Amino acid sequence: MPNTLLKAFRSPLWLFFLGIAFFFALNHYIGIVSDGLLYLLQAVHWLDPERFSDDAAFMFGNQDSFCLFSPVYAAFIKCFGVDSGSELACFLSQGLWIVGFLLVVRRFFAKFHASLLTLFFALAFIALNAHGSACAKYFTGQTFFWLVEPCFVSRLLAEALGLLGLSFLFDRNKYKALGFILLGTLMHPLMAGWCFALWLFFHFPKTILPIAIIALLAPLNAFLHIGKFDFYPASWPTRPLEYSASYFDVCRFVTYFAVLLSALRISHNRHLLKLSKSLLILLAICSYLYFVGAGTENIFLYQIQFYRVEWLYKIFAPMILVACFWERFLFSKRQRSFGFLHNLSLLLLFSVLVSYRHSLPIDILALALILLPDHRLPQGSSRSLKISFLCIALVTLLLHSYVQFFLYGASIPVFSFGRLSWAISALTLLERIASV
Question: pTM, whole model, 2 decimals?
Fold first, then answer.
């Protein structure tokens, strides 16, 4: 790829033109399905309260009491009808989501003077999270909660506004970010509300300690035995433990921990360190309350659904990992030396993030390698540096294949060695980007 073309890709015009076009080529509206039916009923109830006055969900309240999504949905229905209004609202929300995502990616990589990485990362991320793909199911961990929803639900609009707010996270005017985050929180507190926690930890680190203490003591609220501050009664048929974290949920959370700890261990960029620290503390608090809330059958903690914070890490974990690898790559080029252990650790984590299932043994191995002192090998030329990176790519592939085959019963992906050609292309591209 000529350097002149790479320089042209620095323009935000290319990023938004190609990013938005590629996004809508892979994501589309599929109708009023799944939770879309519930949100439609809530919007109709907002327009005509008497229609469902005897329905139990509206007699005793639901999540609609805590957000302002229904008036927004009702306005579209009133102006354009049910079908057209739902489709238009979904289209606009998806458009807002991709614009917010591209702004986050652009401003994130700008802090590393790596604006050329923005377009390539954005397109790869959109492809991996396209609705209906196997990778998208892996990233969400479920078959119906998508990172980009294909129907109009409050999660989609809340994520979009939250992303717009996070795109201003590094700005001096911190309250511009807060405005969008609060708007998203009004759409769905359990989705965009985590953006507020991240914003708070990032800009006001002194709040971390008191909030961590409150979170540590939060499970004790069940001993109050007042309303929702209680344990699940034995007479209730469904139990929180039935919906508690599975093994693969634990694997995903451990992967995010490993990525953030790796960034704190090897990065020298103050923006990345500050963001990684904030995300790590937020993840630790949510993980603790998620597992303890289900295990103790605490009504209040179970209803908050702390697992919803994961959508933030689906976006930030790959970005942070790419930023760390980019930082290591540039350092290796400048110093003419190659750090074997830490680069192997980053590639192992990357192989876990882009695979169809998270592998706990690989996460543990990557964490062990990142905590060890790095073993640096002198390199005499750019070619030897590239060969070194390809060698650890091969080692990563072999380790990942071993774990998939012996621990999960998957067949050894012999065809996966074709990914080495992708690694060669990626390294060539990185070298060109670094020289521009």
Answer: 0.85
